[in-house]
Write a structure and sequence with these properties.
alpha/beta; about 50% helix
Length: about 375
């Protein structure tokens, strides 16, 4: 951020005549600060700032503001902004007012806001917030369980056709060859589409270990991972583990069947020691050639990169599949340290950016 942009944020709207209005990220920073600090009645009386905000603002506005500051500012600034919102301007809807929570429509934006502010809630509001989290997570689970069940229903048997029509099983080669008689030189008319059959998987012999970075930038990925672990937990015979980490590792495997309990135990923020978490994950492996390590992180290592590379190289050499998943935001856009990710690929890991549904398909093929 340039010096002019910093002064524009400090001085606010009155500086626009001399410094110009902010654009892009600068405008977003200014809007977030103005939403909070334009409430200052002392500044309004002195004509320094116009009062565009107000305590009458809707809960949706409050939720969106919390979401925006976590995307725009570093951890120390976020803590100060939240403290000022609560102590200076008494914007306490999310943390003290159960009546407001009763009126709000549960959605993923609210879910993220609750997970970021749950440490500020009293017990009554926390109980209500947990109910909202459960409703949102249940909606996500309903969508993803279908994808997971389909992915693990069986491996493609390319030698046999099936009457079951599914886009996942579409036999492109056979469909084209059997309908070539309908090709008129410009278009192919398909009289009949063909689909592969599937064979049932032997997933009982496999172990899947999810290691999830819970640093502040990883919230959306943590949500994805908690739901993914729950979906895997429901697959008969498949042994799955879920661990979250910053500089310490917390094993949440016993809560895998309840993603809400998992999410309510997440403490966002802090440092990151990926190597320590990976080392813990390897200690859980019982049969290396029947295990998959899924490391969900932004690959910004606060510990030793060299140690992490050595651990991954050793684990891959022993026959365990290692998948590094780049951090995804709520729109499934990847954001990660590409250089370290490339180093891990060089020693045998696979690195990609996948939604939970895509991860299900990858695991299903790997475990076939």
């Amino acid at each position: 951020m340039s010096g002019i942009e910093r002064w524009r944020l400090i001085l606010g709207e009155p500086s626009h005549g001399a410094l110009g209005g902010g654009e892009g990220a600068g405008a977003a920073h200014e809007e977030a600060l103005s939403w909070l600090y334009d409430r200052d009645e002392g500044l309004t009386r002195r004509g320094i700032r116009g009062r565009r905000g107000g305590r009458e603002g809707s809960l949706l506005t409050t939720v969106e503001w919390i979401e925006s500051i976590h995307q725009l500012f570093p951890k120390e600034t976020i803590e100060r902004l939240e403290q000022d919102a609560l102590e200076l301007y008494e914007i306490e809807e999310l943390v003290t007012n159960p009546d407001v929570l009763q009126r709000v429509e549960p959605n993923q934006t609210l879910l993220r806001a609750v997970l970021r502010t749950k440490h500020l809630m009293n017990q009554e509001v926390l109980s209500m917030a947990q109910q909202l989290v459960r409703r949102v997570v249940q909606d996500i689970l309903e969508r993803l369980r279908t994808e997971f069940r389909a992915a693990f229903s069986g491996a493609l048997d390319r030698r046999r056709s099936s009457p079951v029509k599914s886009s996942r099983n579409f036999d492109f080669k056979k469909t084209v060859s059997r309908n070539l008689k309908n090709f008129d030189g410009e278009k192919l008319v398909i009289d009949r589409a063909y689909f592969h059959s599937r064979v049932r998987r032997q997933s009982e012999q496999w172990q899947v270990i999810l290691l999830v970075d819970q640093s502040g930038s990883m919230l959306d990925s943590v949500i994805h991972a908690a739901v993914t672990a729950s979906c895997l937990w429901g697959i008969k015979g498949l042994r799955s583990h879920l661990c979250i980490f910053d500089t310490q590792v917390v094993d949440l495997t016993k809560e895998c069947d309840d993603p809400v309990e998992t999410l309510m135990k997440v403490q966002l923020g802090g440092g990151t020691d990926i190597a320590e978490a990976f080392s813990y994950g390897t200690s859980l492996i019982t049969a290396p050639r029947r295990a998959v390590m899924v490391l969900i992180t932004d690959f910004f290592e606060g510990g030793s990169e060299a140690r992490l590379i050595r651990e991954v190289a050793r684990t891959c050499a022993e026959g365990t599949a290692v998948l590094g998943l780049a951090a995804l935001d709520h729109e499934a856009n990847p954001a990660y340290h590409k250089e370290l990710a490339r180093e891990l690929v060089n020693v045998g890991a696979q690195v990609g950016a996948m939604t939970p549904g895509e991860l299900a398909a990858w695991l299903a093929e790997k475990l076939a």
